[in-house]
Fold:
Amino acid sequence: MSVKFEKNVLGRLVPNLVNGKIQIPFQGVGKHLPKGNKYGAPIVSCADFPADGNKIVPNLQEALLKAGLRNGAVISTHHHFRNGDLLAVQIFDIAHSLGFKDLVWFPSASFECHQPLINYLEDGTIHHIEGSMNGSLGRFASEGKMKGMGVLRSHGGRHQAIQDGEIVIDIAVIAAPTADAFGNATGDRGSAACGLLGFALADSQYATKVIVATDNIVPFPCVPWQIQGNNVDFVVVLDQIGIPEKIVSGTTEITKSPDRLLLAEMTAQFCDEAGIIHDGFSFQAGAGGTALSIGVYFAEMLRKRGMNARFARGGSNKYLVKMLEEGLLDYILDGQTFDLEGVRSMRENKGHVNTSPFTSYNYHGKGNFASMLDVVVLGATEVDLNFNANVVTHSDGILLHGVGGWQNCLFAKCTILPIPLFRDRIPVIRDEVTTICGPGELIDVIVTERGIAINPMRTDLLDKLKYSNLPIKTMQQLKEEVDAICGVPEKPMFTNNPIAVVKWVDGTVIDTVWEVDNTEK
Amino acid sequence: MSKIVTTGNIGKTVRSDCAVTLELTDSGGIDLQIESKVKVLYGKQIEELAREILAFYKIKNAILLIEDSGALPFVLAARLEAVIRKLINTDTEFLLPLLSQNQYHTAKDISRVTRLYLPGNSPSLMINAGIHHPNGIILDLEDAVAPDKKYEASFLVRNALRNLDFYGAERMVRINQIPRGLDDLDFIVPHNVNLILIPKCESAAQIHQVNERIEVLKTKHNINTSIWLMPIIESAMGVIKSFEIATAAYNIVALAIGLEDYTADIGAKRTAEGTESLFAQSQVVNACRAAGIQPIDSVFSDVSNMEALKNNVLQSKALGFEGMGCIHPRQIKVVHENFAPDSDEIEKAKQIIFAFREAIKKGLGVVSLGTKMIDAPIVKRAQQTIEKAIKSGKLNPNWEDEEHVC
Structure:
């Protein structure tokens, strides 16, 4: 079957086949409603497992072989250690040394530490990556060098794809900072403590085989556990599974940049004038300096008015922990722990709760937390005149980031993107984004240092801000302003070769990422 | 002819700038190489601009390397012109069209509570300066520019004055010390500057020298709007001569004081309490008030300590100053808010004005508020407080109507 392309409802050209699998083009928000039953993992019997509960195997290679490593296998890992992950590369080192080919890596996210995997993408050990491709991996893919096509999914979309059987994980390898020999595992303790292991939850429940790898084995029972040993096939003890200091990513400090602080301040003021900040409100702010600073401004407002927020979602960090401990916030519903203060708080504070993509983001759940949020503050690499936004490619067309929880968060009651109008001459407001990751109908407000644009669909917000002192402008005005400063940019050149697709939260294809054309014209 | 010259900046931390390296050759045409992180988006435009400028200076044979980290066109043009004029002896200027929204002039008595200092050779700090809304933006050619970068900085400052939107802020330039600073005037007077700061000013004669050069340039370029001066007093001699300086010319709108240099000059250590500079500060305030111009205080150098800045501003306001230089955008808000009258002062001023109006209506010669007599200077100060409150946004211009509604 040859690949055909058709336009989805947003007018984007998408392939009907990706790595041999049939695809459904994006139909619109909430339009694709698959029927039938969820995918089920194979039936197992406890008679097949050691009665003494000791599932330890001597090393990772043996565990992988016992788990049925074969050519073409789908192997999943998780990004709880972010740039300090030591496991994924080891797995593929072993697969390579044993001569396995055409493997599929299904990470919950990738980081620069995974750059060595480029060798295995080149030599055919790995066929393609279904997950974020950041930095070097993204550049490699953008140049059309990956054998198969990349599949970019949100955190919620990853859970959806596992639950509806779009992807079947042959072997899930879960890096656990602390575990027992039965496979009960947790991330809140141990020398590589990283907080929670929520991204591995679906893998532990749905993968054919599950391996827990730890560098801190404790006597049974490891309590409280985040990954349940009853779902685990093998346990491997390694010298070191992650580098603790790299678990804290660089984007988890509030910004010192006066321009970004101004963006944060304008965003907080906007929320205030829009009536979003009230006693018992809820919010989520992504990683990244600007988003974190907004939380600090929220805290200031709450403190002054003697109010508190009911819950905050998302990556926990020292600023949220401070709000929690100061009584400005009742609950942190933690999806991923961004710094060591977050890890500590998770151990110590009752109001700091573990969540997973299932509770917060999943399309096949009976509701999720993201849509209950009063406001979410996110970033973007580009936004266009129709409020469509891009988070995966840059204006020069190169794939550099993953989707993360970004798409899932768009369902909040108010979605705000504070972004500069341009970054070092790179315009952020465009006629048309390079890649659509989120449809404009879900994006309510764009805050730039030179003006704030409210989605015309949000007449309620436009009304509330009618007499504001904030610089409310239209997207068209912002676009004209950036073009006047930077010049009208040329469009990046692409070949006809798709290198990845971006999935919407429901599994349909919202856009295609194309190979960049570097030939000088 | 084989001299190779570079202007601009390149390096890991450099943003929104470029380095331009030029060698004039005898043959071979233009060998142009562009390395840019925005090449996909703006490569063609960068090339067009470079070729246009080379052609403008009639350069037919050269090797030109542009290493770009996202420089805006006005920056690229400044770097290219500077590199060419380092090799070719010419006074011809390559000017981009003046931004229409930049064609505003300022009045003598506008508010100058905050002025943001920007190093004259750092484009990345200039580009967003206006969005922080200081009253004035100072492009600094003096201390913030390394000696070997001063020449190229004057092109960048000139282009910024013409082509960078400061969103209504007064466009100011701090020139170099006189006499060197006189040559800086050629780059700024014809190009849209509103106010010139004269550093280390010690005499009326220096003001006259500056004004003579300004007049020549204004005549030559047919400029008939005022260019204001703000001398900076930074030495014992300057302090002693402050009244002479303040009254040296009609276009002096303010004196600023620079305490780092002043304290060094008198051989004292600069302290947090500032006892050592109390005389100088009071002298400058008095000279300004006597001359009818604005007294402006020294900058506060600890950019991370907003609480200390606030105390500094309150102290400065108590001494009679009307404004302060800012060296970081985050200082602007704090300086504005604390120079502005506080709510008690505003309330009191309102009451005084109402009592005064009432007394006039009733034909009373003596005004009183409660048990206190109110005389003319008190009413005047109340009016000033109201004006400042309105200017700083703390009071609605229609406050009287609102009061009556209540």
Summary: The mean pLDDT of chain A is 94. Chain A has 15 helices and 30 strands. Chain A touches chain B at residues 258-259, 261-262, 395-397, 423-427, 449-450, 485-487, 489-490, 492-493 (CB under 8 Å).
